[in-house]
């Protein structure tokens, strides 16, 4: 009888261990793309970053970054330091976004950020087949090499398209095609996208580009409006405090469209504990 008891205990224990392994959470991957305000210029003045990291942007062992060598490492500001290399990078919205998601959605698991933003780029430079587009797809695919799931794209771009009337007029169609092409090439036609309506622009057609961004009507695409967020003295880039606010806005929008996460039931664990208690009590009684 004792041998039978131990056999049952071993079997039930192995069952629970197998269930726990099968419910391991994959890495949740987010692509950060666009131009300088996604790359981050918070705290940068005259080409120098002040090095001040707001509390909401602090590193977390659960937040990783895919570096320029396509290797995962613990994420810390500036996230785009080895990606957007022609300009000085500072605080962007990515770390705030990731920390906010972890605080509010414990089931998200480990977060992997994939920086791809490059300052001063026009939407036409992100068209399918371009170097920027190809780099984004290569980095996104590399992020999946060790497991995980691409859960969304964060997009902040368009300042450069406010300078030329034709670029501004064509912006909506080009942006919609970009989102559609990326989803197609990543084999995720309903991939959530959270884009930012501009807070500033480099030209006189800002209102045209903003209107296009606010009128994008694709499934699982949300827009957060950066208008009114505090700009740096250059009148173009968001300051650190504004980036903190934007990161939280992006998190709010993503959580509204995020696919429900599987929740592991504790029923099997409760049954396992009850079964153990019952057998141990029975064994002590017989003894």
Automatic annotation (TrEMBL):
Could you tell me which Pfam families the record lists for this protein? SASA
Which N-terminal residues, if any, form the signal peptide?
1-18
Q: Which organism is it from?
A: Penstemon smallii
Q: Which GO terms describe its molecular function?
A: hydrolase activity
Gene3D superfamilies named in the record = SGNH hydrolase
Question: Can the keyword Secreted be found in this entry's annotation?
Answer: no
Q: What is the lineage of its organism?
A: Eukaryota, Viridiplantae, Streptophyta, Embryophyta, Tracheophyta
* Name this polypeptide is given: Sialate O-acetylesterase domain-containing protein
Give residue ranges for domain Sialate O-acetylesterase.
27-256
Database matches in InterPro entries: Carb_Esterase_6, SASA, SGNH_hydro_sf
* UniProt keyword annotations, A-Z: Hydrolase, Signal
Report the superkingdom from the record.
Answer: Eukaryota
